[in-house]
Amino acid sequence: MFLYGFMQRAFQASLLISLIAPMLGLLLILRRQSLMADTLSHVSLAGVALGLLISINPTWTNILMVVAIAILLEYLRMLYRSYSEVSIAILMSAGMALALFLMSLNQGGTTLNITQFLFGSIVTISTEQVWMLLILTILIIVLYVTFHKAMYVLTFDEDTAFTAGLPTKVMSILFNVLTGVTIAIIMPIVGALLVSAVLILPAAISMRISKSFNGTILIGFPIALAGMLSGLVTSYEYGTPPGATITLILVMILGIMIILKKLWQGRNT
Amino acid sequence: MYYIKVDDLAFHYEKEPVLTNISFEVNPGDFVMLTGENGAAKTTLLRNILGLLKPTTGQVKLAVKNRSGQKLVVGYVPQQVASFNVGFPSTVLELVQSGRYQRGKWLKKLDKADKEQIRRSLDAVGMWDMRYKKIGELSGGQKQRISIARVFATDPDLFVLDEPTTGMDVHSREEFYKLLRHNSEKHGKGILMVSHDHEELRNYCNKHIELVRKEGLPWRCFSMDSCKELSKPHFSSH
Q1: Is B236 part of any domain?
Q2: Do B133 and A162 make contact, defined as CB atoms within 8 angstroms?
Q3: From A150, A163, A212, residue closest to B91, measured CB to CB
Q4: C-alpha closest to that of B192 among B17, B53, B62, B8
Q5: Over pLDDT 90: what percentage of chain A?
Q6: Which of B122, B153, B184 is the last residue of a domain?
Q7: Does pLDDT of B55 surpass 60?
Q8: CA-to-CA distance for A27 and A140, rounded, in angstroms?
Q9: CA quadruple B211, B215, B220, B221: dihedral positive or negative?
Q10: To which CATH superfamily is domain A5-195 assigned?
Q11: With pLDDT > 70 as the criterion, what percentage of chain A qualifies?
């Protein structure tokens, strides 16, 4: 399995996604934007469909589309401040509708490609994508190390962050854009329908274990890595879609953690 | 010199007026109590002052520099801080440390003096021993105390506090008021505090602003009674 070039690239990509997921996932959860990742992945499908329709590398149309929508999302979040999920619902449906519309214009010639983007495929990972993912991972780590204090305050309470002099609006837009670019890049690997699960689950699991903010991210790394690697191996062995397999394994880890914690609490009371 | 200057402020929610004719100043060394019945738009007024809402008419000026000529640092304790997300993965220490970041430490490491300020702040509210607890595991009163510790860790020039003593016992409240008064009198800090304990608090403040309904104003609209200067009884400071 490790002799195949596509599997080597898949493992390299998995390692990089495992580094990104706990950082982005935790911030998305704490900003109550878990569903934003889902919205952006639906929108990114439209980006892929557009690229295939006009015969441009879909990765680039995808990134452009997702960045534009990520900015629009922040505007809608402000507009519907008390009901921020409205913006998610609007853009999720609009993204899917646009993707289906553009796909139908393509007269079925690229159905296979779209299916790959929907469910993810190991064989679609190119060397170029691994490099893009590596650059993105380095960028996210550098940004996190530099701005984690500001992000902590922003996620804890946006009003307190504003009062402390942080540029909350700019930070929110940049965070959305970064999330969008990440989704656009990892979508071909895990699939549009499950990309948000892969980003959110490692942080959701480690939040049940760790007491601290940085601890949650540190514990999230091995959890994400275990889920990604075992998911890829299982996917290869049984021919199952990688995104679905990784998600199921992470959900199983979450279930085991919940049960273990209940047993631990029961023993200590 | 002022830290806050509110000049004939009015604020409307959509088209409904909720505040009108509000004018006052908070100067360095002032300890100002803001009171009013439930729904008197006290929090709305604070949010206007902090720039979280935009006044419909009138002006709010927040000083750019403190009395030493350095950038003004504002410490804000929002209302109902006790109800913050119980699942937020943070220890007490991490939260209180975060109050120190706005002292030029967003990109720098906290130094010895910062850590000492954090320790003293946690000590002052009796929460040092619980510094490694997850904030979600604390009681309402303890959460209130760590939010106060956080603002003392910031050591701001201007305190803006929205009912910070909710859930605190009488003794803790008195200690807190004494600490605030010490900060205003001895260190020239400006303090604007929304409170329901005005009988208790009036012994510590030097100004009292009450938001009231006035004749001729719409039902939900509040205005200022006046900005009363209060006489300060003598206290032994900490």
Answers
A1: no
A2: no
A3: A212
A4: B62
A5: 43
A6: B153
A7: yes
A8: 12
A9: negative
A10: ABC transporter involved in vitamin B12 uptake, BtuC (1.10.3470.10)
A11: 94
Q: Please report, to the nearest 10 degrees, the dihedral formed by the alpha carbons of residues A216, A208, A231, A26 taken in order.
A: -40
Residues of chain A found within 8 Å of residue B106, distances taken between Cβ atoms = 147, 149-150, 166
**Cβ–Cβ < 8 Å for B28, B3:** yes
Determine the pLDDT at residue B116: 96
Give the span between the Cα atoms of B176 and B164, in whole angstroms: 10
pLDDT at B234: 46
Question: Mind telling me how many Å the CA of A67 is from chain B's nearest CA?
Answer: 27
Contact B85 A30 (CB under 8 A): yes
> Which residues of chain A make contact with B95, given a CB cutoff of 8 A?
156
Last residue of a domain, one of B106, B135, B153: B153
The residues that bridge with B162 in the sheet, in sequence order, are: B194
Q: CATH number for the domain including B35? A: 3.40.50.300
The ipTM estimated for the assembled molecules is 0.89
Q: Token pair of A87, please? A: 């913006």
**Contact list, B102 vs chain A (CB under 8 Å):** 164-165
Per-window interface: B 184-213 vs A, CB < 8 A: none
Confidence of residue B11 (pLDDT cuts 50, 70, 90): very high
Mean pLDDT of chain B: 88
Most confident range, picked from A56-60, A180-184, A265-269, B13-17: A180-184
